[in-house]
Amino acid sequence: MRITPSLFQAYIECPTKCWLRFTGEPAAGNAYADWVNTQNESYRTAAIEWMRSEVPQDECAIAPSQESLKTAE
Asked: I need a labelling partner for 24 at 20 to 30 A (CA). Which of 2, 46, 53, 56 fits?
């Protein structure tokens, strides 16, 4: 199971909500909630790109594998 930011946020709000999202249960279809989620994702993506631009590429780990984490590469 991969823990994503949206799953983690859902778990903080309600463990049942997290489980429903994990199993792929369709959302209720709230237009405002969809807009907020889109905005949050946009801000998160922009922040990640900004942080990547501030760190030298040879010091930045992007989606490391399990093996490289264990050996601290």
From this structure: 46
